[in-house]
From TrEMBL:
Organism: Candidatus Nitrosocosmicus arcticus
Keywords: Hydrolase, Magnesium, Metal-binding
Protein family membership: Belongs to the HAD-like hydrolase superfamily.
Segments traversing the membrane: none
Protein name: Phosphatase of the haloacid dehalogenase (HAD)-like hydrolase family
Cofactor section: Mg(2+)
GO molecular function, one term: metal ion binding
NCBIfam families: HAD-SF-IA-v1 (TIGR01549)
GO biological process, one term: small molecule metabolic process
PANTHER family recorded: GLYCERALDEHYDE 3-PHOSPHATE PHOSPHATASE (PTHR46470:SF2), N-ACYLNEURAMINATE-9-PHOSPHATASE (PTHR46470)
Length: 232
């Protein structure tokens, strides 16, 4: 019997970025006010959540939020200035603040006994190195990172590369990710089964149409084995 192939996103799916999100918000909030924004925390989070909920930024993640937030609050021209001020700090501290979700260390070896595992992610090799650090990389047969492939999710090409490498039929492949717009949508369009994780900043997104609707939604990775047993 051919094993089902389960592909994972990295950031906010296997990798816990909550400490980084907190640091990001604190730094950006303070910097905006340092440059004269005079915005309180309530309005800051209202604006930030609107960007997330309504897909105002694409596949570049948090760094793209900087320019968008500045553009909403400060005069024209401040966006590139503040982006340059914060970029290095955020990239350096992200490496220190992110970690694997607590379930990953036992879950991945467990799943690898029954499923073939892969990665489809826009994250850098630095994030993927967390799997190497904990000797989990050996459980993944395929690792497709945007920086290696040359295409970012939601581009179908990165998914298609992973699917070709898996040598598995599309209906035998499952995508697990946290973002409706760049994980669930393209995977559904290609015919993969989809599972959405909610332990993420992007949990506030709501499906805009049928193609953004996952087959299953889980609150945490601990629910994944039971859900996989129902669809594979």
């Amino acid at each position: 019997m051919v094993r089902p192939f389960v592909f994972f996103d990295l950031g906010q799916t296997l990798i816990d970025e909550w400490n980084y999100v907190t640091y990001f918000d604190k730094l950006l909030f303070q910097t905006l006010n340092d440059y004269g924004a005079r915005i309180d925390q309530r309005n800051y989070y209202t604006l930030r959540n609107d960007l997330v909920r309504n897909r105002k930024f694409g596949s570049s993640g948090f760094l793209e939020i900087i320019s968008l937030m500045v553009g909403l609050i400060l005069p024209k021209g401040y966006d590139s200035l503040i982006f340059d001020v914060l970029k290095t700090d955020l990239l350096e501290n992200k490496r220190k603040l992110v970690k694997l979700f607590s379930q990953v260390n036992y879950l991945i070896p467990l799943l690898s006994k029954k499923y073939s595992l892969g990665i489809i992610s826009n994250n850098s090799s630095g994030s993927a190195n967390l799997l190497l650090k904990y000797d989990l990389d050996k459980h993944f047969k395929i690792v497709c990172l945007a920086e290696d492939i040359g295409f970012k999710k939601p581009d179908h090409k990165i998914f298609q590369k992973a699917l070709v490498d898996s040598n598995s039929s599309i209906d035998n492949c499952i995508m697990v990710g946290d973002r409706l717009d760049i994980d669930i949508l393209p995977a559904n369009e290609l015919g993969m089964k989809t599972i959405r994780t909610l332990d993420s900043l992007y949990k506030i997104q709501e499906p805009l149409n049928r193609k953004e609707t996952p087959l299953f939604t889980i609150n945490s990775l601990s629910e994944l084995p039971e859900v996989l047993s129902r669809i594979s």
